[in-house]
Amino acid sequence: MVGHDSAADVYRQALPVILVSLVAGLFAGTLLGTETMREGIESVPGILLLLPAFLATRGGVYGSLGARLSSGLHQGLIDPHFEWNDRLRNAVVASFLNGLIVSVFIAVLAWGILLALGRGGSLLELVIILFVAALLSAFAMLGVLLTVIFKGYRRGLDPDNVIGPVVTTVGDVFGVAFLLVGIAVAGVVL
Q: Is the pLDDT reported for residue 105 higher than 80?
C-alpha cells in the first residue's frame, strides 16, 4: 500500500468517516432520549452510572484491535485479504474476551458504587445487562471493524486514518442499542 503522508490525504480519508460518525453519534444520543431508554434507566439502578464506562470500553478494546490489525497490515504481518490465521484469530479472541470480562467488571464496580452510596441495585441484573450488551456489541463491532480494515486497506485507505472514528461510533450506537436489549433480557430472565 502506498503511504498517505500528506495532510490532504489524511483529511480526505478521515473527513467522510468523521461526518458519518457525527450523524451516528446523534443517532446514539437520540436512542438515549427515547422513552424506552428513559424507562430502562429509571427501572435499573446503576445503568446511567455504568453507561460512560461501558461505551468507553468498546472504544478502548476494539480501538486497540484496530490499531493492532492496522500495524500488522502495514508491516506485512497480516495478509490484506481476510484469512483466519493464528495472528488474526488471537487478536480477535483476546479483544472479544477483554470486552466481555471488562464489561462484567464494570457491572460489579457500578453495583459496589451503588452500595457505597446507599442505593439499592441488583448485581445479577447489572451483570446480565452488560454481558448481553457486551456480547452483542462484540459481534457487531468485530464485523464492522474487520470489514472496514480489510476492505478499506485493499481499496487504498490507511486504516489508521479511519478506524478511530469507526470504532467509537459503532461502539456508541451498538453499545446504547444493545444496553436496551440487555435490559429487556434481564427483565425476562429475572
A: yes
Residue with cell 480526505: 12
CA distance 153 to 145: 12
pTM of the model: 0.88
pLDDT at 6: 79
CB within 8 Å of 162: residues ≥ 6 apart:
13, 14, 17, 148, 152
Distance of CA 150 to the CA centre of its chain: 18
Alpha helices in the chain (DSSP H): 7-32, 35-43, 47-75, 86-116, 123-154, 159-189
Task: Read off the pLDDT of residues 138-148 as tens digits, 9 standing for 90 and up.
Answer: 999 999 999 99
d(CA 103, CA 171): 13
